[in-house]
Each structure stands twice: as C-alpha cells, then as structure tokens.
Design a protein that fits this description.
α2 packs across α9. β2, α5 and β3 form a beta-alpha-beta unit. The protein is globular. It is an alpha/beta fold. It binds S-adenosylmethionine (SAM), 6-(5-methyl-2-OXO-imidazolidin-4-yl)-hexanoic acid and iron/sulfur cluster. Iron/sulfur cluster (SF4) binds next to loops.
Length: 362
C-alpha cells in the first residue's frame, strides 16, 4: 500500500482482547446488522490482528476415502449413502509424500490429510504418524482430520509433531441431530477438548447451507467462540451438494448469509484464521472477494478437496492477483495467540502456464 493510502485507511488500533463469553443475543444482533456495518466492523477487526492482504494457503488430500460408518447427511463418504464413490484403502506413504511435494511446489504451506473414519485405530494412527513425519520433513505444516480421538491418541499426534487437528462442530447443537445420528455434539466437543489439552492447534468450523436457520448459524459461532481457546483456524464450508446424500437438493443459501457468517466469525474470533473452505468452485469471484473483505484469510488451494472439485488453481492465481492478495509463508513457532505472528514475505504461488502461453509456445 502506498504510504498515504496506508495512513488514510489502516487503523493503528491495539489488538482486541479475546472474549469467550459471547451471548446468543450479541451474536444474533451482529448477524442481523446491515451488511455494510458488519463488513466495516469485520474489516476493522481484521486489520488489528492480520496483514489485510495476506492469505494462508493449504492443500487437502483424502488419504482414506469412503466406506465411513457415520451417517453425516452432507457427506459423499458415508457407507449409508449411495453416492457412487469408489472406496479406497489408506494411501501408501509414498503416494501421500508425492502429493505433499507437489502441493509444496504449487506454493501451499500446509498439507491437510483427511480420512473417512469415525475414529482411527491405534494401527491407523501409526500409519498416519509416518505421513505426518514425512510431510514435516518437507518443511510443510501438517493438519489431519481423522474423526474422534482418545486423549492418548491426541497426545501421540502431538508428539509426532502434528501442527493442527481439524474437527468441525459443523452446525449448532440444536440442528446437529437433523444432520447426523451416529454421534453427538458432546462427542465432537470432547475430541476438541483432548486436542486443545495436549497442545495441538485446533481447526474447527462448520458447514452452511444445510437448511439451518440464521439462529443455528449464530449458535454454532457462539459454540466456537466460547470454547476455552478460540480455534486457531475456523473453516467455513458452504455445502457441496453431492447426489445420493440426504442433503442433496437442499435450497441454496443466500450468498450474503455466507458473507455475514464469515464477518461475525472474524469479529468473535479476531485472531483466528477464518478459512473460506468448501464450496468455492461454485462461487463467483465477486462473492469470494466479499468473503475476503469480511475477514476470510485462508483457503484450500489445489484442484481437489477430498472427493469433490475445488476452485481451479489457475483461477485462484488470477483471482489473488486481481485482488492483490499475497500467499503467506509458514507460521513461525512460538506464537502465543491464534494468528498472532506469522511471516509475511512475498512468495507468489507457482505460476502455471495459461492456455494462451501454451498456444504461444505451440
Ligand atoms: N471423518 C472425519 C470427520 O468427520 O471429522 C474427517 C473427514 S470429514 C470429510 C471433514 C469435514 O469435511 C466435515 O466435518 C465437514 O465439515 C466437511 N465436509 C464433508 N462433506 C462436505 C460437503 N459435502 N460439503 C461441505 N463440507 C463437507
Ligand atoms: C473442512 O472444514 N473442509 C474440508 C476439510 N475441513 C477436511 C473438507 C471439505 C470436503 C468437501 C467435500 C468433499 O470434497 O468430499
Ligand atoms: Fe465419515 Fe467424516 Fe464423512 Fe461423517 S463427515 S461420513 S465422519 S467422513
């Protein structure tokens, strides 16, 4: 930013103290605000805690796909839904490391590995630990999402050097039973407690567009923001509708509700990364730009999520360039606050040849 624009627009305000006592009244009142008020408050909050034009970039890989015993109504991987997905066993280590290396080449700084398990067995855990060690040795941050954990399993993951554990609350406690019957909200909270207690960083958020009300979105945000520590990373997914799942055909969410939810997440959890997560493949560039203006500062980058398509990587490069967003470097060790300290050096995503480059070379 030019010095004069910087002086004119960047508030030199102190960081806000983190609160863990948000009431439903406060959160619903935020969600009900005129959108411009919400965007202004979220953007101001964002600038107190983060460099406003940096974006954290993670890449996702499904290391074990399908045949999951859980019945999550949104998920392509439940054995209870006929989605035509071909189940796969746990990927071999070499395949995972090849994918991580490719993600690093593309500019991702964190590699997230997802498994379609209700919970990992101890043997599963050993196999995943080998993957974590291998990915860390490539110089990348690691995140895994493996379902419910026992405390000892969380501790073993921490000892193996894992950085983040992803475990979403997904929706409000009130709406949860309409989406999932094979586990409870309390089960989710217990795993989050173990993850936090052993010193792993937490990645937890939810899915919008499952037929929930604005009040449910407020209630989910309240749950996340009133955890004993805010999750360092808060993924906000927009439901990817998969044919054969019970939620296929749910009425599409008003996109401004997504923007509002991101803005309120930013205000409630000012020092956390808020990830504009699944659903970007079907979003316009303009909607994504509004989400970034509302405080989203992280995305999944790469052509695939777990079992569905992500926004195309070339389109992302072009979008980031058009918006002046710079991908962030890996976080430094020793942060004491979520999002409090990260490197900020320019490191563009690897440029892929455009079709016109290829045509020019031909
Ligand atoms: N089995 C583990 C679990 O449920 O925690 C880890 C994998 S699960 C696929 C991880 C997260 O992906 C879910 O909590 C949910 O938030 C998200 N997810 C799954 N299917 C989705 C969909 N169709 N649209 C949006 N998000 C989805
Ligand atoms: C999260 O919150 N979103 C990611 C990650 N955590 C594991 C998963 C999105 C899955 C989208 C549907 C699919 O590709 O199967
Ligand atoms: Fe299984 Fe996770 Fe999908 Fe639920 S969201 S069906 S637990 S893979």
């Amino acid at each position: 930013m030019s010095p004069s624009l910087s002086r004119a627009t960047v508030p030199s305000q102190p960081k806000m103290p983190l609160r863990h006592d948000w009431s439903m009244g406060e959160v619903t009142a935020f969600l009900d605000e005129p959108l411009n008020n919400l965007l202004f408050a979220a953007q101001t909050t964002h600038r107190r805690h983060f460099e406003p034009n940096r974006i954290q970039v993670s890449t996702l890989l499904s290391i074990k796909t399908g045949a999951c015993p859980e019945d999550c109504g949104y998920c392509s991987q439940s054995a209870k839904h006929e989605t035509g997905l071909e189940p796969e066993r746990l990927l071999p280590l070499s395949e995972v490391l090849d994918a991580a290396r490719a993600a690093r080449e593309e500019g991702a700084t964190r590699f997230c590995m997802g498994a379609a398990w209700r919970n990992p067995t101890d043997k599963n855990l050993e196999q995943v630990i080998a993957m974590i060690s291998g990915v860390k040795a490539l110089g990348m941050e690691t995140c895994v999402t493996l379902g419910m954990l026992e405390q000892d399993q969380a501790r073993r993951l921490r000892e193996a050097g894992l950085d983040y554990y992803n475990h979403n609350l997904d929706t409000s406690p009130e709406f949860y039973g309409q989406v999932i019957s094979t586990r409870t909200y309390q089960d989710r909270l217990r795993t989050l407690d173990y993850v936090r207690e052993v010193g792993l960083k937490t990645c937890s958020g939810g899915i919008l567009g499952m037929g929930e009300s604005r009040r449910d979105r407020a209630s989910m945000l309240c749950q996340l923001a009133n955890l004993p520590a805010h999750p360092e990373s808060v993924p906000i997914n927009l439901l990817v509708q998969v044919e054969g799942t019970p939620l296929f055909g749910t009425e599409a969410l008003d996109p401004f509700e997504l923007v509002r939810t991101i803005a309120v997440a930013r205000i409630l959890m000012p020092a956390s990364y808020v990830r504009l997560s699944a659903g970007r493949a079907n979003m316009s560039d303009e909607l994504q730009a509004l989400c970034f203006a509302a405080g989203a500062n992280s995305v999944f980058y790469g052509d695939r999520l777990l079992t569905t398509d992500n926004a195309d990587a070339l389109r992302d490069q072009q979008l980031f360039a058009r918006l002046g967003l710079q991908p962030e470097e890996a976080e430094l060790e020793g942060r004491d606050q979520p999002g409090g300290c990260h490197r900020s050096i320019d490191r563009p995503l690897r440029q892929r040849p455009t079709t016109s480059d290829q045509a020019a070379r031909a």
